[in-house]
Amino acid sequence: MYWNPGGNLDLKPEVSLQIEMGHQFSAKGFKLEFNPFFLDIKEMIRWLPDFSGNWSPVNTPKVYAYGLESMLSYQQKSTNEALLMRISHSYNRSINQSTNQQLSYVPLHKITAGIDYRIAFFKIYAQGLKKKKTYTTTD
Fold this sequence. Notes:
Helices cover 0% and strands 67% of the residues. The protein is mainly beta.
């Protein structure tokens, strides 16, 4: 709770109710996963920059968060070759109940895609990331 600089002696413990349901379907090298979730959080602990630029823990009194994480992947293997492709999407609506605004530093949408290819001892990997609007202030 306290260190210099950046501590918070008034930090309260976070309490939450969380519900998440994981679903997974597989067929012929393809795998589809999706996980809807809901959180009701009281005194959420968030790390935010203070006026001097140091990151410090603060409580946000009441937050609702809900969304969906999903991923589609394809994998093919042989004796000395392997291919893995995947794409994922995350929708995360995190609402500060005092302001009815999306929490800062929490993107509403995030998409990642990647590909791995291995042949014998050589492996190549590429990944991309796209985030939608992410707020950095509370207003």
